[in-house]
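re: that chain from earlier
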Amino acid sequence: MKYQQVGLHVSAAGGVENAPGRARSLKAECFQFFSRSPRGGGAPTISSEQANDFRARCKRYELESYIHTPYYINFASKKKSLAAAAPHIVREELKRGSQLGVKYVVTHLGSARDWEIPPSQLFTNEVLKQVAVGLKEIYKGNEKYSTELLLEIAAGAGAIIGHTFDELQYVLKELGRRDVHICLDTCHMFASGYDMRDAVTLNDTMRQFRNIVGLSQLKLVHVNDSKAGWGERKDWHEHIGKGKIGSQGFRALLAHKDFQKVNFILETKHDKGVHDDLRFLKQWRR
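^ sequence. v structure.
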């Protein structure tokens, strides 16, 4: 790869085969989408014709693609039905991704809000063990997937799971799989207390990531500025350079050696600002 590919999250309304064209029309170089409603309901069947169309369009437009799992997934829930549904849904998304030729499925881990445990104690509690057990359930059986799974860092609101490098590394170690890795989100990291407003703070943050998780685990980056301040633990995306991270932080990220071999996905609002976001990222990448 000559340099980072810059893309964005697009709609798959009307059928997954429509997503590549939407990405191309926005001048994206890669894209992410939901293969089902992120809010609830079953997954619509993907026909062989749809899958072939999706693959052909991605090939024609030279676009790598990623699926984001629904928001309601919760590996940490104390409710058995919700906890049991999480691996089932992710397994379905890996199957669908493999059918479509998608490279990664990105998922959040969920929240322990119904455990009534102070957030400061979550890392030492059985909650993380439950999350790891649930993730292992995805891979029970002999089915093979060409699509790999990425665990996304969270913003740290409330009792959310996976908002620190230590928590992510714990889960990866418990899984012990070569096909599960990490997706970093700049807004989430910043909200969780990992600074990146300039080259110095970004260097310190990535030193922590390399020491705790390992750079080989980083496979994708969601690039979003943050409406909330550093360490405020709020998942509020903002256009690049318009939030609390700021332009200097993103220029540092684009130039940083740790981000030269991973693609970037914008999850900012699809208004005029998203075009400015794409232009900024393409202009400052190395």
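The mean pLDDT is 95.
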